């Protein structure tokens, strides 16, 4: 679902105001509230126009973050790209805010955190829609917007789910917010609950690392002695300067080598993979080999163009490979 449609779906119909302003009582009524405010009902309003809704400009100094975090640090490249775009062309899409439930004359971000951060950095007001909503509607809107974002990694979604769970949100609400089933939610909570928080924070968003590899890393981190190994690696000089995916790869490989791996092993070994970055982050790739299969997956800004270049020059590249192989064999 596009972000504009998502904005329509959230502000198309107001939700019932909470009985009281505090969130402490939500844990007892979250499940029943989720029946009234579901993603289905929000999606039904996505086709409606924003009739009667006003986009206003608000000082970012008056805006606080959502009560549940959904991002890790280490996404500076995407932030700088968004900042440059807004600086040159302005903020096209408004953010969604709600009146702060605990502080008068302040606002809380429902979604659009990076746009608020950009406005703060540029010293300009934020274009926003302000909508009264309770915590359940807030969680559903923020979670649905997360699902629509392709750049949110598995571990960020897992931490978002764990944060909601720790705040007392019902599992039914979390599943609806992230549009996932109970099995995937259990896996997310297991990963986010087993891998120590300081290790996850040190790694960062790890955009190229998916669920299976995080679950494998979780099994390593379930052994206390392996956590000590990870801590020694985190303290290594220069580790904090590496990109997020490389941090994960190094931690995973070094802990496996030096630490104590769990006794129960998978029947088949996980194919070895490594990450590659060039052009100051304009092109990134994950390179893997399993038996005779060799795969290269490209992402980031130049991925499409570079991929086309490779595909158009495969014959020439293979010919050069054969030529070098023959020279090596005859020398």
How is this structure best described in words?
InterPro entries: Chromosome_partition/occlusion, ParB/RepB/Spo0J, ParB/Sulfiredoxin_sf, ParB_N, Plasmid_partition_RepB, Plasmid_RepB, RepB_N. With 331 residues, this protein is of the alpha/beta class. The protein has three domains: 190 residues, Conserved hypothetical protein from pyrococcus furiosus pfu- 392566-001, ParB domain (Alpha-Beta Complex), CATH 3.90.1530; 71 residues, no CATH class; 59 residues, no CATH class. The chain is 51% helix and 13% strand. It is built from 15 helices and eight strands. The chain has a five-stranded mixed beta sheet. Strands 6-7-8 form a three-stranded antiparallel beta sheet. Strand 6 and strand 7 form a beta hairpin. The longest helix is centred in the last third of the chain and has 17 residues. The radius of gyration is 23 Å and the shape is globular.
Q: What is the H/E string? A: HHHEEHEEHEHHHHHHHHEEEHH
Number of beta strands: 8
- Give the fraction of residues assigned to helices: 40-55%
Shape annotation: globular
Please, how many domains?
3
Mean pLDDT: 78
Query: Any low-confidence stretches, pLDDT <50, length ≥5?
Result: 1-52
- Biggest pleated-sheet summary: 5 strands, mixed
How big is the Rg?
Answer: 23 Å
CATH architecture of the largest domain: Alpha-Beta Complex
- Strand order, biggest sheet? 1-5-3-4-2
* Percent in strands: 5-15%
CATH class of the largest domain: Alpha Beta
Give the N-terminus to C-terminus distance in angstroms: 59 Å
- What structural class results from the helix and strand content? alpha/beta
């Amino acid at each position: 679902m596009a972000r504009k449609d998502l904005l329509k779906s959230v502000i198309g119909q107001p939700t019932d105001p909470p009985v009281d302003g505090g969130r402490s009582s939500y844990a007892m009524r979250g499940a029943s509230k989720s029946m009234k405010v579901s993603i289905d009902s929000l999606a039904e309003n996505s086709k409606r126009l924003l009739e009667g809704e006003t986009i206003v400009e608000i000082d970012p100094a008056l805006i606080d973050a959502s009560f549940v975090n959904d991002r890790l640090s280490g996404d500076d490249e995407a932030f700088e790209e968004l900042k440059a775009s807004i600086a040159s062309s302005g903020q096209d899409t408004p953010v969604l805010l709600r009146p702060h439930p605990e502080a008068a004359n302040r606002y809380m971000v429902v979604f659009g955190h990076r746009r608020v951060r950009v406005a703060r950095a540029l010293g300009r007001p934020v274009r926003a829609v302000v909508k009264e909503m309770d915590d359940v509607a807030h969680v559903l809107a923020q979670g649905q917007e997360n699902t629509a974002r392709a750049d949110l990694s598995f571990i960020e979604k897992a931490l978002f789910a764990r944060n909601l769970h720790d705040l007392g949100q019902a599992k039914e609400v979390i599943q609806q917010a992230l549009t996932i089933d109970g099995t995937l939610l259990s896996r997310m909570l297991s990963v986010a609950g087993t891998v120590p928080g300081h290790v996850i924070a040190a790694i960062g968003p790890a955009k190229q690392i998916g669920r299976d590899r995080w679950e494998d890393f979780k099994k390593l981190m379930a052994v206390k002695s392996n956590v000590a190994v990870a801590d020694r690696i985190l303290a290594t000089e220069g580790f904090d300067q590496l990109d997020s995916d490389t941090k994960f790869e190094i931690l995973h490989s070094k802990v496996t080598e030096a630490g104590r791996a769990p006794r129960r092993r998978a029947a088949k070994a996980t194919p070895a993979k490594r990450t590659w970055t060039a052009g100051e982050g304009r092109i990134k790739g994950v390179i893997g080999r399993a038996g005779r299969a060799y795969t290269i997956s490209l992402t980031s800004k130049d991925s499409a163009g570079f991929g086309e270049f490779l595909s158009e020059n495969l014959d020439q590249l293979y010919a050069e490979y054969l030529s070098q192989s023959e020279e090596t064999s005859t020398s």
